[in-house]
Please model this.
Amino acid sequence: MRDFEMFSAAGNAAVCGIVDEAIDRFDNRADAWDWAAGELELLAATSTYGEADDTAVREAVLEELLAAFPEVTFKSVRA
Model:
């Protein structure tokens, strides 16, 4: 299981589910991030997973989304 900097294995599993759903549901990083960030806020509102909106957790989620939706780089072929 991936580590999302949550305090428990169950917390990591919950965030992993959010990330996997964001990757499956959306076809670009911006939309996936917007949805995932909202889900993290909802998860953080629970008494069990209050750390879900910590910076370390958000950064770990963003790293996964960056890997899933890499930036396309276009280079000119003109000399």
